[in-house]
Design brief:
By secondary structure, the protein is of the alpha/beta class. The protein has a single domain, classed as 4-Layer Sandwich (Purple Acid Phosphatase, chain A, domain 2). Helices cover 37% and strands 24% of the residues. The protein has 8 helices and 11 strands. The chain has helices at 16-29, 60-72, 90-96, 127-136, 139-146, 150-170, 173-176, 180-190; strands at residues 2-6, 33-38, 76-80, 98-101, 104-109, 112-117, 194-197, 204-210, 213-219, 230-233, 236-239. The strands form 2 sheets. A 6-stranded mixed beta sheet has the order 4-3-2-1-10-11. A hairpin with a 2-residue loop joins strand 8 and strand 9 (213-219). Helix 1 (16-29) runs parallel beside helix 2. The protein starts with a strand and ends with a strand. Bound molecules: manganese (II) ion. Residues 40-41, 82-84, 118, 120, 199 line the site of manganese (II) ion.
Length: 240
Amino acid sequence: MKTWFISDLHLDVNRPEIIQFFLEFLDDIKPQADAVYILGDLFEYWIGDDMLELSIFKPFSSVISKLKSLSDANVKLYFIAGNRDFLIADSFANKTACKLLPDEKVIDLYSVPTLIMHGDTLCTDDVEYLKLREMLRSKAWQDNFLSLPIEERMQQAQALRDSSKKEMKNKAEEILDVNQITVENTMQQQGVLQLIHGHTHRMATHHFQLNKQAAHRIVLGDWYNAPHFLSVDKSGFTLR
Ligand code: MN
């Protein structure tokens, strides 16, 4: 049995092939999974759990029911919000039987304390993004946004994605990656030598020293062209 980590699928009703990849992936891993951790950006955008009532989001109902079928088969499901789907809430969690975790969580991964997170808060060189994040994550902004009609929320979400795309083009590659000092401070605060995150889409394992001990950071891949995952069991890791 294995524990699986995925992130940055960016599921979108306009890209049905990725939804299909995901459904097949869940079928494949179901018999050999203890747990599945979704580390954010499962969806390209999420404007409130009630969006599932709109007919255009109908393709997501197969995702919801597939996740639930894993829960029913005793696979534990966990979700940490990404910068695209941070409005996923209790209704989604109840429908999928997925447990929503806080932004940073230390888990016991086959006896190794492991910090898991989406990863956007590690990109501290992107000061503008962090400012925007603070607003988007505030209760005041979210209460107001969720009170808007769905159509208006969709327009606002589209505008946010457009401006983020534009801004990302103007930012240097280093600014969009994690800051190593932030990585080390965060790991130190959480008392771990192992970190798993997504967000940057730069799939890799980075080794470094933390307080003279061997530490590493595993970055999950995105699903734009093919499924990517990390699977872990007692004997080790597979990142692909
Ligand atoms: Mn992200």
